[in-house]
Design a protein that fits this description.
five-stranded parallel beta sheet; alpha/beta; single chain; 5 strands; Rossmann fold; Butyryl-CoA Dehydrogenase, subunit A, domain 3; 11 helices
Length: about 270
């Protein structure tokens, strides 16, 4: 496999990480583009002695940590972007990076230490502190769209453990629409394939026509969404999932308050 082919397979994941870190797909993509331009100019600029994935994230971290990039800044930021800027001030940048590398990207602590140029003790400290900071998020009302009862119960336990309220659990497209008519959730957690053969993607699109909650897909079919073209409010966790990753993603979604930018899912 060529370097270009290896990078192409990793870019959607790096874009996801960059988007969560910066709070904006445009800003995140600006950093990803800077990384790719640097590699194209000099392929040897990728750090040596690491796996290709660790090397790519190490290079991203170095650029993010030293070069101010904002994509195409709006003269008047959206309300959610302004809120995100205020909240980011409460969580130190290094803590956010370590937290996301661990619970969103699944890197072991040793790799996080290598990416950030620190020792493992410091990496663990940063992760623990970020967990404590993010736990202070404002509670919201959650709609779960999941047809497997045990999985739905497990997700509900995770959600309520964070202090949120589960307003309904829907097993089909129809049940999801009925739930959204009764309640106005602040967050939707959805599977793609539902009972009776209906689609979680269709259910989410119908929900977004009536309301604008941020959406997290928790699915065994990530290839349906992990294309680099997902809309701003749509986040993705693959099954089987790490409970810590679900908790982290929920906190990140609410942290950035992406509901104001809801769009249909392709």
């Amino acid at each position: 496999m060529t370097l270009a082919q290896e990078l192409a397979a990793m870019i959607p994941h790096l874009r996801r990480f960059a988007r969560a870190l910066t709070g904006s797909q445009a800003s995140g993509d600006a950093y990803v583009a800077a990384v790719l331009e640097a590699i194209a100019a000099d392929p040897k600029s990728l750090p040596a002695g690491a796996s290709r994935t660790v090397a790519l994230y190490t290079m991203f971290y170095r650029i993010w940590n030293t070069v101010p990039l904002n994509g195409k800044p709006d003269p008047a930021p959206a309300a959610w972007e302004a809120n995100a800027d205020q909240r980011l001030a409460a969580i130190l940048p290094a803590e956010r990076v370590a937290f996301l590398l661990r619970v969103l990207e699944g890197f072991p602590v040793a790799d996080i230490a290598e990416i950030m140029g620190i020792d493992e003790t410091e990496a663990n400290r940063l992760i623990d502190q970020a967990n404590a900071d993010i736990a202070g998020q404002i509670a919201t009302r959650v709609l779960i769209i999941e047809d497997e009862p045990l999985t739905a119960l497990d997700i509900e336990t995770l959600v309520t453990g964070l202090g949120h309220e589960v307003i309904a659990t829907a097993r089909t497209h129809k049940e999801a629409i009925e739930a959204i008519r009764r309640e106005r959730p602040g967050l939707v957690l959805a599977d793609i394939h539902l009972a009776d053969g209906s689609s979680g993607i269709d259910a989410v699109n119908d929900i977004l026509e009536q309301s604008s909650p941020p959406v997290i897909f928790i699915t065994a079919y990530p290839e349906r969404l992990l294309t680099g073209e997902r809309p701003e409010p749509t986040f993705l966790i693959s099954k089987p999932y790490d409970p810590a990753a679900v908790r982290a993603m929920i906190s990140q979604v609410l942290f950035f308050e992406t509901a104001a930018t809801s769009k249909k899912v392709a």
